[in-house]
UniProtKB/TrEMBL annotation:
GO molecular function terms listed in the Swiss-Prot or TrEMBL record: 5-oxoprolinase (ATP-hydrolyzing) activity
Upper classification of the organism: Archaea, Methanobacteriati, Methanobacteriota, Stenosarchaea group, Halobacteria
PANTHER family (UniProt xref): 5-OXOPROLINASE RELATED, HYPOTHETICAL 5-OXOPROLINASE (EUROFUNG)-RELATED
Recorded GO CC terms: cytosol
Biological process terms in GO annotation: glutathione metabolic process
Pfam family, one: Hydant_A_C
InterPro entries, alphabetized: ACX-like_C, ATPase_NBD, Hydant_A_N, Hydantoinase_A, Oxoprolinase-like
Biased composition (Polar residues): 1-15
Residues covered by region (Disordered): 1-39
Protein name, as recorded: 5-oxoprolinase (ATP-hydrolyzing)
Hydantoinase/oxoprolinase N-terminal domain ranges (all copies): 36-210
Residue span(s) of domain Hydantoinase A/oxoprolinase: 230-513
Domain of life: Archaea
Acetophenone carboxylase-like C-terminal domain mapped to chain residues: 533-682
């Protein structure tokens, strides 16, 4: 369990009574005339959501390299559709994949690591575990910093303070060496710097004076114990920092030239921050896009009559799954990206390489596989007609009839159905299947099985019954697969928000501003001096308020990481404004019982103290005025469990469906940004804000 960021924006509609909110969906402090835009960069498409005059305008354009080109193209496209000049925008929020791409592709900076003498190899040693316990040839991910760029300094700090000061001359000599090596970034992680950062601060100060490259110090990035995780997180920050600095700086300049406000950047913790803050704390931008999607789901759907929401975001490259409980996105401080531990707070998102652009292939044993390799945006799936020849999930959806030949992906990209069929025919030959249709069925089934396992990992494996949750589907491909996933999980309700194809972009409009700080204290809870803990909290609160744009408007939450004496890992529980050891202990016992099924009559240790400052945002009003007359026609489509024969599915223009309209499956609802499949035995209803709620009427598998 982790203590969540208090992100609880007002919501437009309830999945229980379908009644609109009487307050218009905005917080009392919001200015309903604000013109705001959110732009989220994905692997295939860049999504845009524009709130203007109480209306929501959405757009989707192909992602570009560099990313800022597509961002500005999408921004201009949405403004053109809304009939406004970009200079009229009041706010601009943005989520990107720059940092995560740098990690996945190992395209970050030439980074040096400075550490305490004798601890040069901490990144390589790690936790001495293997990716696969029984695979003797399993390889660990290569450390971000190779051994030849890892350097030691003579110093010694213990958990009780500095024992051997750092030698300034040695640090200056090291700076000269780093300059000669042409390093592009420096990470500093000295032993026990979380407890006493004096030596590390001196090293950082000297290197910043001597070098013209960014320097990341562990006590500024993550003031927590555990040397490997602290060093890894600091190395990640340094590794992606030049790329983030260049990208954000360029985007700020381009926005200024266009008369657009400077972008506020989505962080992995689900909150937005100003450009300078994220340029100084680059590691916080990992997984910013998926975090925005979860925030958008929490802002769009009320979960009051269910255990919570399972959010399912299927884009072009991957699928992201997360949980929302009590209106808040679940967060974690225990995450990995490509085998690299990152311990900054982030929305707890599980990602699997199964998206619309994921390539289907046959392994050495003859089994059909899907992903993780993706066709990307260029050339993309075969059906894009841009030169792609490998079969993808999107091509399978075309052959199955879910995406029609007249469908314009992103509102402008026409499809080459024959190219999709030819790609699936080649896959069928390789897999020993009878036809392109059989291959398409197999691709759809394998992709769904992969995503179902991911949903089970965040529900069943954590003690949650998915049948008590609603599944919120979004992303360009999510609504096509959601009902099939719900069938396999026995989930009765699927919710597809009106801006479902661009929900991450919409989430940027609804996001709070949020900042986190942590410090290790490592003390017995029962004997800890409350005054000492309050002193630490005062420092943490000062740190997070210093980053807030409006400290007076910020809401501060305090938390404590606790464990039983002798345990290796902690649970995070809320802490009151005045630290109450008994209340914290009681909350920890309850949290431990929820997480593990039991509590102990043992001493409790408080390991870390945390503070989060949140400046509440305001959700844009979503007004839906579907004029009716939404019937487009019918199309043959193939559904799981329906046998070999196709079914005639009714095709609707979703945006024209009026509030209160009901849809019976089999049906297909088309939008510019996404397509929703309503299988046989499922029914759907359009709510007052345009949200579609699908209800399972039986098992059609």
């Amino acid at each position: 369990m982790t203590h969540s960021n208090p992100s609880d924006p007002t919501r437009n509609a309830s999945i229980t009574d379908h009644a609109p909110r009487t307050d218009g969906g905005a917080s009392p402090s919001s200015d309903e005339t604000d013109t705001r835009i959110g732009v989220d960069v994905g692997g295939t498409f860049t999504d845009v959501a524009l709130s203007v005059d109480d209306d929501l305008v959405t757009a989707k354009v192909p992602s570009t390299d560099p990313q800022h080109v597509g961002v500005l193209e999408g921004l201009r496209k949405a403004c053109d559709e809304a009939g406004i000049d970009p200079a009229e925008l009041d706010e601009f929020a943005h989520a990107m994949t720059v940092s995560v791409n740098a990690l996945l592709e190992r395209g970050g900076a030439e980074t040096a690591l400075v550490t305490t003498e004798g601890f040069r190899d901490v990144l390589e040693i790690g936790r001495q575990d293997r990716p696969d316990l029984y695979d003797l040839e399993a390889e660990k991910p290569e450390p971000l910093v190779p051994r030849e760029r890892r350097f030691e300094v003579s110093e010694r700090t213990t958990a009780d303070g500095v024992e051997e000061p750092v030698d300034p001359d040695e640090v200056r000599d090291l700076a000269a060496t780093l300059r000669d090596r042409d390093v592009e970034a420096v990470a500093i992680s000295l032993l026990h710097a979380y407890a006493d950062p004096e030596n590390e601060a001196r090293v950082a100060e000297t290197l910043r004076e001597e070098l013209e490259v960014p320097v990341s110090a562990s006590h500024e990035v993550l003031a927590e114990f555990r040397e490997f995780e602290r060093t890894s997180t600091t190395a990640v920050d340094a590794y992606v920092r030049p790329a983030i600095d260049r990208y954000v700086g360029r985007l700020v300049e381009e926005a200024e030239d266009a008369g657009v406000p400077a972008p506020r950047i989505m962080q992995a913790n689900g909150g937005i921050a100003d450009p300078e803050t994220v340029r100084d704390h680059a590691v916080t931008t990992t997984l910013s896009g998926p975090a925005a999607g979860v925030v958008g789901a929490a802002a769009t759907v009320d979960d009051e009559d269910v255990e919570g929401l399972v959010t399912f975001d299927m884009g072009g490259t991957s699928s992201d799954v997360s949980l929302v409980r009590d209106g808040r996105a679940e967060r974690t401080t225990d995450a990995e990206i490509d085998g690299l531990p990152i311990r900054t707070p982030m929305v707890d998102v599980n990602t699997v390489g199964a998206g619309g652009g994921s390539i289907a292939w046959v392994d050495a044993g003859g089994a059909l596989r899907v992903g993780p390799r993706s066709s990307g945006a260029d050339p993309g799936p075969a059906c894009y007609g841009k030169g792609g020849t490998e079969p993808t999930v999107t091509d399978a959806n075309v052959v199955l009839g879910y995406i029609g030949p007249e469908t314009a992906l992103g509102g402008e990209m026409t499809l080459d159905v024959e190219a999709a069929r030819e790609a699936l025919e080649r896959l069928a030959d390789e897999a020993g299947l009878e036809s392109a249709l059989e291959a398409a069925r197999g691709v759809y089934r394998v992709a769904n099985a992969t995503m179902t396992r991911t949903i089970r990992s965040v529900t069943v494996e954590r003690g949650h019954d998915p049948r008590e949750f609603a599944l919120v589907a979004f992303g360009g491909a999510g609504p096509m697969h959601a009902a099939a996933l719900a069938d396999s999980l026995e989930v009765d309700r699927v919710v597809v928000p009106r801006p479902g194809g661009v929900l991450s972009a919409f989430g940027l409009l609804a996001a709070d501003e949020s900042y986190d700080a942590v410090r290790t204290v490592g003390t017995d809870l029962a004997t800890a001096d409350p005054a000492d803990l309050e002193t630490v909290y005062d420092d943490l609160v000062a740190d997070v308020l210093a980053d807030a744009s409006d400290p007076d408007a910020a809401e501060v939450e305090r938390a404590a990481d606790c464990r039983y004496a002798g345990q290796s890992f902690e649970l995070t529980v809320p802490a009151d404004e005045e630290f109450d050891a008994e209340a914290v202990a009681e909350r920890f016992h309850e949290a431990h019982e929820r997480a593990y099924g039991y509590a102990l009559d043992e001493a409790v240790e408080v390991v870390n103290l945390r503070a989060t400052a949140t400046v509440p945002g305001s959700e844009p009003t979503v007004r839906h005025e579907g004029p009716g007359d939404a019937l487009v026609g019918t199309r043959e489509a193939h559904f799981p469990g329906a046998g070999a024969e196709p079914r005639q599915a009714t095709v609707y223009d979703r945006d024209r469906l009026a509030a209160g309209s009901t849809v019976s499956g089999p049906a297909i609802l088309e939008q510019a940004e996404s397509t929703t499949v309503v299988p046989p035995t499922w029914t759907g209803e359009i709510l007052t804000d345009g949200t579609l709620v699908m209800t399972r009427g039986g098992d059609f598998r």
